[in-house]
Amino acid sequence: MSADSDATLREQGTAFMPRFDAAGLVTAVAIDHRNGQLLMLAHMDAEAIARTRETGLAHFWSRSRQKQWMKGETSGHVLKVIEIRVDCDQDALELRVEPAGPACHTLAQSCFYRRIAEDGTLEQIAV
After folding, report:
1. Judging by DSSP bridges, how do beta strands 92-99 and 26-32 pair with one another?
2. What percent of the chain is predicted at pLDDT more than 70?
3. Order of strands, edge to edge, in the sheet holding 59-62?
4. Which residues contact residue 23 at a Cβ distance below 8 angstroms, ignoring those fewer than 6 apart?
5. Cα gap 66→47, rounded to integer Å
6. For residues 10, 46, 38 and 13, what is the CA-based torsion angle, rounded to 10 degrees?
7. Regarding beta strands 38-44 and 26-32, do their DSSP bridges make them parallel or antiparallel, or are they unpaired?
8. CATH of domain 18-102
9. Is the pLDDT confidence value at 35 over 70?
């Protein structure tokens, strides 16, 4: 199969064909399905995608720990996956989820709880 036909299938076809990076990962964002709030960004390999689809709970690949993990496996703050969306070239996933508690390990509702101020410092925002 040529690169052009592969791209056409990936971008316009119905087959799920994730385009993993050199490390075997795709970027995944978790979005609260009730209100559209961005909760977190993580990475998934083929096994994390498979485990997520099998269990209905979000699984990821930890680049820092170099291992699989299920969101909430120690805290209980799991992400129940309602729907998985894929971007146009299948190198990023959007997980529409129902969170069971805070999404961030800091106990913030979202991992995106700070912004860069004009002076270059970080300031906390309500999420």
Report:
1. parallel
2. 98
3. 67-70, 59-62, 38-44, 26-32, 92-99, 79-86
4. 63
5. 13
6. 20
7. antiparallel
8. 3.10.20.810
9. yes
| Secondary structure E strands in the chain | 26-32, 38-44, 59-62, 67-70, 79-86, 92-99, 114-116, 122-124
Structure tokens, 79: 């992400």
Look up residue 81 and give its two tokens: 């996956």
* The two structure tokens encoding residue 56: 């209905």
- Tokens coding 126: 């309500």
The pTM of the whole model exceeds 0.85: yes
Q: What is the pLDDT of residues 49-99, one digit of tens each?
A: 999 999 999 999 999 999 999 999 999 999 999 999 999 999 999 999 999
